[in-house]
Design a protein that fits this description.
The protein has 318 residues and is an alpha/beta fold. It is built from 10 helices and 13 strands. The strands form 2 sheets. It has an 8-stranded parallel beta barrel with strand order 1-2-3-5-8-9-10-13, surrounded by 5 helices.
Length: 318
């Protein structure tokens, strides 16, 4: 059976550690507040700059179509293709998907693509998975939006079996049948690719606690964080509780003394208040924060440099 005696790679622990909160960036690593489409100008060098600055991760979004109702086309290019490109120009930063929309993809292909990315990055890949948030995409794939939760669960189980077992067997309602006569290669380097839920994925806390290694959501208020971590620990039972992190749209104010402000789903904040906020969340048990620079009023380069000089070192202090 899957998930027995699992050993997760160092790349996972560098992002989701036991005591220190880490920070990552969502792609595209670019500020584009007034348009749904990024320019992708110098995108490779900006990722390299983020790695040098000490960011723990780069998260690649999975957005098949541009939906005008959302006003954001993400990094435009396919996340697995992009991961291959970034793997060739980076050395140690963890690459993750945030998250692969499982109901819209074949799980055998996802298992193959993610294990291949793990191999080509020397174990630097984390598989983040989701059900997506754009209902308009589902009819284009000929898939019922109402079935997304069940498809997600089936896909997760099939991916785990394909990657963790040899010649697995599994019957599924929405996908194919594994009859024990085929074996998928490559296998993950550590025998088990880390899997992270991105968003709630229409699942219960109990299911997430038992099936995911970590969970990245949008909830970042102190009392709610405490409740989430408590619920995850309770539902995990005798297995390790999944790590918790959150993602947010982010605008680092040029004034280092600017207070925390929230504009709908955008956090605008100066670096001093940001350091205090992140240290507080670290004390609560948050493992990781993923920042989306789309609404930033400053260029990504300036934000990366300020974070690398002031914010990330403050989190790394004993």
């Amino acid at each position: 059976m899957t998930d027995k005696k699992r050993t997760l790679p160092d790349s996972f622990h560098r992002v989701f550690g036991e005591t220190q909160l880490t920070v990552g960036l969502l792609t595209p690593v670019e500020a584009y507040p007034d348009t749904p489409f990024p320019s992708l100008t110098d995108h490779g060098s900006l990722v390299q700059r983020a790695e040098e600055a000490g960011f723990a991760s780069i998260w690649l979004r999975d957005v098949p179509f541009y939906d005008p109702n959302f006003g954001d086309a993400a990094q435009v290019v396919d996340p697995f293709v992009y991961a291959g490109y970034l793997a060739a120009i980076t050395r140690q930063i963890t690459l993750g998907s945030a998250g692969i929309v499982l109901p819209l993809r074949d799980p055998i292909s996802v298992a193959k693509q993610s294990a291949s990315t793990d191999l080509l990055t020397a174990g630097r890949f984390i598989l983040g998975v989701s059900t997506g948030d754009r209902a308009a995409e589902y009819p284009a794939f000929g898939i019922e939006f109402a079935e997304r939760a069940e498809r997600f669960q089936e896909s997760v189980e099939m991916i785990k079996r394909l990657q963790q077992e040899h010649f697995p067997s599994q019957a599924s309602r929405h996908y194919g049948t594994l009859s024990g006569n085929l074996d998928l290669h490559p296998k993950p380097r550590c025998g088990s690719l880390p899997m992270v839920a991105v968003g709630r994925a229409r699942q219960s806390i109990a299911w997430l606690a038992k099936n995911m290694d970590a969970w990245i959501w949008s909830v970042d208020e102190d009392s709610a964080i405490t409740g989430i971590l408590s619920a995850l620990a309770e539902e995990a039972g005798d297995k390790p509780s999944p790590k918790y992190g959150y993602a947010t749209f982010f605008d680092l104010d040029a004034n280092p003394d600017a207070p925390y402000q929230r504009y709908y789903n955008v956090v605008r904040i100066g670096r001093k208040a940001l350091i205090e906020r992140l240290l507080r969340h670290q004390a609560l048990g948050v493992s990781h924060v993923a920042l989306n620079l789309k609404p930033s009023r400053r260029e990504a380069r300036a934000v990366i440099d300020e974070m690398g000089e002031h914010v990330l070192p403050a989190l790394a202090r004993p």
